[in-house]
Each structure stands twice: as C-alpha cells, then as structure tokens.
Fold:
Amino acid sequence: MEEKLLIIGWDGAPSKLIKTFVDRGGLPNLEEIIRNGYFGPLETVPYVMSSCAWSTMVTGKNAGKHGVFDFYSNKFEDNSYFRKPINANAREEIELWNILSEHGVRIGIVNVPFTYPAVKVNGFMVAGMLSPSIDDRNFVYPNDLLNDYEEAKNYIIDLEGGKDTPKDQFIENINAMLEARTNLILYLLEKNKDLDVLFAVFTAPDRVSHYFWHFCDKTHPYRKNESEEDLQKYEDTILKIYEKLDEKLGDIIKKFEHEISKDFSIVVVSDHGISSLKKILHLNKYLEKKGHLKFKQKEEWKEFQKNVLNKKVSYIFGKVDWSKTKAYAIGKRGAIYINLRGREPKGIVNEGEYENLIEKLKKDLKGIKDSETSEVIVEKVRSRDELFFGRNIQKAPDMLIFLKNGYFPFGYAFELDKPNWISVNDRVDLPFVTGIESGDGILCVKGKNIKTDVTSENSRIRDFTPTLLYLLGLPIPRDMDGRVVKEIFRESYLQENPVIYEPSREQPRGRKQEFSKGNMRKIKERLEKLGYF
Ligand SMILES: [Zn+2]
Structure:
C-alpha cells in the first residue's frame, strides 16, 4: 500500500483542554501536527462509555447497529438484575481492521479499548482494556507476537486501583503504564517494517482525569478534602501526563519515520472528553418519589453479596421491590430501563403500557430540580429510538437522561434514608470519581492531502472510519452511518478522488460474547476498580 498511516488514540482527551495545553506550548509534537494539519472537536456518542464510543469509532456506525452500549450485555445473571460483562465479540459490525485486512492492508493494533479477544488481522493485534491477562491466549494475535519481547513481563494492560491508591503511587503507575505501552509500540514497529497502518491507543489521559480532575478545576467541591499543599502539588498532574504523552507521540513518530516510511499521514484522536462531576443525581430515589420504583424496607434488603466486590458501591439489586417497580436506573450514564414483563427477570410492565410509560417518565423527569438551589438540572430526556437506530436497538437502555453541566445521573441506591435526591460530590466515602466522561473528543489529522487552515465543528465519532478509508484511497461500505469529513481534505485530492461506496461488509458472527467463567471474576473486579460498576 502506498499510503502509510499512523493513528494514535488518547482516550478521554477533551478538545477544549487540549487546545489550552497546546496554546500554552506544553504539547510541541501535537502542536506541530495541528499547525500543519487539521484540529477540531469530535462529537462523541450519546451513551458516553468507552466501550460504546470506541465501537462507534471503529465501525463508523451508531450503537443501534453494532450493539455495544456498555461493558455489560442486556442478559441478566442468575435471574438477578445484574447484567453480564461482555467482550469485544459482542460488536456485531465489521471493524476498521477487518476492512483493511480484506483490502490487503498490513495493520497493527495496540490497546484499542474493548478489543479482547484479539482477532486475526492482516498484521497484528494487542488487545486492550479488560483483557484478562498478558498470558491469556487471546490477548494477542498472532499467538507468538510477544514471544521474543523481553520486556513483555513489564507490560501493563490497564491500571489497578483508583481513589484509594495513594496519589503519588497512582501517578507512578500511570507513568509506568505509559512507558511500557510506548516501548511495546516501538518494538512492534521495529519488528514489522512492512506495516501500512498502526493504530495504538493510550488510556492514561482518561484514567488520570477521573481522579485528578478536581485539582485542575478550581470550582470543584471535592477540593475541600485536599490540603493546600496537595492542591498545589497536583495542580498540573493532568498537564504533566499530557506532556509525557506528547513526548511519547514524538518518539513514535520518529520511529515510524525510521522503520516504516518518511511519507505518511498522522491522526490523533479521542473518543470523548471529560468534565467535572460536582453533583450526583440519585435517579432511583427520584423515580421512587414519582411512584415508578419502590425500595424495600431496610429490614428486607438482601445484599447483593455474591457480585459485589467494591463494598462502597450501593447497588439497587437486593433493595428494590421489583413487584412494585415500573422503571429503574442502572450505572453511571443516566440509563433508565422499564421493568418489562418477559424481558426483565421480575418484569411487571406489559408491552402495551410501554409507550405511555415512556411518555409519563419523560414528563416526570424533565422537571428535576436541584433540591438545594431549586434550579432545573435536566437538559433533555430521550427514548432510545430518538438516539439510536438499527437491528440491535433493543440492547440499548429504554431511556437516557442528560443533565446540565456539573451534574451526573447515577443508577444506584445511595443514602435512601435521606430525603434529598442530589449529593454534592465532596465526600471521600462516596466511590465516585471527580472527572467523568462527557463532551467532545478531538480529531487531529496531518498529511499531504490534508488542508492546513480549516476548522470543522461538524465531525462526529462515527465519521472516523469512513474518513480514514477515504484517506487511504479505499471505498466506504454503504451501511456506514458516518460520513467522510471532506472539508479537511485538499481540493486537489477531493477532485482526483471522488468518494466511492461499496456494498456492506459482514462481520464474522457467532463468536462467544461472554468471558469464560475463570475470567469473569477478574473482569468484574477490573470494571469495578475502573468505576464502571
Ligand atoms: Zn474513553
């Protein structure tokens, strides 16, 4: 293949923050790409989970088609309301790397989130977050990829720990992970000189932002738990991680130039931004207030012991009276489910009541106020068919609620004895992070066919794959929802290369979507530690 391409992902890099850091001169390598190429925000998915966002990015399709909304499936475990964790086989649409492989492009994939188990590609794949371990036989493709790599034992798939890890230790762990990731990428470039495309992702920005966001947001309520000394000491922690990432970006660019080609395009991309989690809306408490949900009396609570690893998390599973509950919220993204008969383990809502209930919920939820300030905190409430389309739409939550800046809706059972449905995120005993996935990511592109003086406010995460296919001179499968972001290409390239479409391509089906029993506990533990409980 004539066209060579280097794609670097920074999970959770927000466009505004990156712009600020670049303007301050802190990220010279990224700045060079931006100055000689394109930089703009990349609109994320409505259900902002890394699994959903990256799946949309690498398929060019909305989640109603690829079917990955969360790290969990829509199947229930042992008749409880706890959903089973899923792996990347749950993605039911063909990914960028399979398309490129079918075209004979040599591609290397490293640590793209939600790629375990690694699949056969025309090149290599190192799976990303939620891979059970480095020794797992499905961690890499081909099997012997890392056999001669002496530093393999030092490789870190993802971070362990979070809020409870001492800060300096956490920073040290992030740096070690970043270092190990870069070393592996450099090694793989050296060993695969015939590569056409490398796609490698760093998760460090997402992880550091979750736990250190309050240090860079001077209005964050959680700051009251930190000493003056710490507030100063960690003020630039996030920036420093980005500086390190930028330095590594420079190293990878140099290596790519040296091993692969002098002439190549570069893409730096992120799946979503991050924003301050200042106040928490306890959605289930609000649903109870409106008569849609019933919590049991405290004496009747059955703790959900079997599945709870993080004792700080208060799940609803054993606390809800399902026989009197029509709607409930789960997780940390404002997902609301109808307790539907025949679908939910103890469903009571009939199919015929569904639409009316959705409308009633919309009305009831639209007016939620901050119980302290009396301000309406809801931006919008949407049913799933207003947000997604495709044959897998039934895997989506029935509704999503979107709140104003600073507020986030959570689906747990915290502080049921208190009348308030809002908590300020200023307490160490709550398991919540201080920065949370929200808003635009980034798209930076530099190459001989890319304009240097253009901004676009209209690129979306689903445009990533069609745009890259076009950049590589390949046709776009007709069933992609995204578009080619044409405005970033030079006129001459656009004229000589009309966008060509081709019939849809099928993803191999029938793969096992659940983790093996042995890995299940490990994966749940990691999900909880990452805050995806
Ligand atoms: Zn992410």
About this structure: The radius of gyration is 23 Å.
